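re: ur question from yesterday

yeah so i grabbed the chain u mentioned. its 113 aa long if i counted rite. heres the sequnce exactly as i have it in my notes:
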Amino acid sequence: MRFRLDMHNVHKSVYLLKRIQTKQINQTTAEIQRRRLSWFGHISRMEIDRLSARALYCHVTGERSQGRQVKKWIENIKEDFKLRNIQLFKDAVASCKDKTAWRQLISSTSSSS
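ran it thru and got these structure tokens back, copy pasting raw so excuse formatting
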């Protein structure tokens, strides 16, 4: 039995594989964003004297090193807000206080990716 490769089928298979991989990457990215926002809501509801909350809202003095700067975690959160059309950071922090509303907000809004 001889297997014959048809170039049309090869191209079609490569195209389908790329589509599947792209869809999986988008789903994975959306899940990472959802979990990051979920964790942000959890920390925002904490008392300010807890270590995690202090780390989120603290300001470190000093200078950052030269070159391209490493993205801060809070910058990722702000980008996630933009992708989910949550306009104001302060409003988002205020809406975190209601756990059920926050969960509904981050699970119902889909990212634009």
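noticed a couple things. Residues 31-56+72-113 form one domain. also DSSP finds five helices and no strands in the chain.
anyway ttyl
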